[in-house]
Amino acid sequence: QSPARLPERVRSNRFVIVRADPTLWPTPMKEPARGPANRTTSVVIVAAGQSSRMASADATSDTPRKPFVVLEGLTLLEHACNAFDPLADVHEIVIVGHEGDLERIRRMARSCPSMRKVSHVVAGGELRVDSVRAGTQAADASLQLVAIHDAARPLVETELIARAIEVAATRGAALVAVPVTDTIKTSPDGEHVENTLHRSVLWSAQTPQIFAQARFREMLEKARAENFRPTDDSSLYEKYVGPVPIVQGDVRNLKVTTPDDLVIAAAILRSRASSGARRT
What we know:
Layout: E1 16-18, E2 41-47, E3 70-71, E4 74-75, H1 76-84, E5 90-97, H2 102-111, E6 118-123, H3 128-138, E7 145-150, H4 158-171, E8 173-179, E9 185-186, E10 195-196, E11 202-212, H5 213-226, H6 234-240, E12 246-248, H7 259-279
Parallel strand pairs: 2-5, 2-7, 5-6, 8-12
Antiparallel strand pairs: 1-11, 3-4, 7-11, 8-11, 9-10
Helix pairs in contact: 3-5
């Protein structure tokens, strides 16, 4: 099967991007002129999921949601905020939480050093796109960029975020992603494999995903008007603008979904701490 005819999206437990033939894209809007880059950024951290696949891992709560699971001394939410905090380009962090978690998150924002840039805590919606819309609406519209990040990715590194901001500032968007290394199969019925996709054109999407804020707000409103409900943010750009610039990600920027992921994440953090101690 020719890569040009591959489907736009492969459904799996992780987001996968297919690089399609550009001639198949709708006519895109023009990219922003590449003058001096304005990198002022509002960060929207999405922490409003149900955490249904995460068993209880926090002894301080009977039914902890994923953002409050403790990993090597900090909650996942604190780790996520901590990665963005050192960047001068990041002017604020908006946290989108579950309705029942908002007061707890606000208390954390007042007391946790890594959350000092939190400007708003807002309730999420029924779907991810609803939560992203709520967070973006609360963001400072005067800032050039909006970066959408999952609280469930606590291991993102500051250097990677900075690279993504730079690309978004000059090209209008940036998607952190890594090449797929597994062989990906399609199975319409979940019982029989129908086809094998070309691994060379497959990428696994991560976060942050960063966009020119004014345009992203427009895309969110278009999606609402058309009842378009994407499961990741770059899908909006793909639909309404065109191909999204890729920033090479890191396999260690994993999404914590199950208790096993916590074990892996803890090992990565300990390895980073050990490497840092050796360098000093």
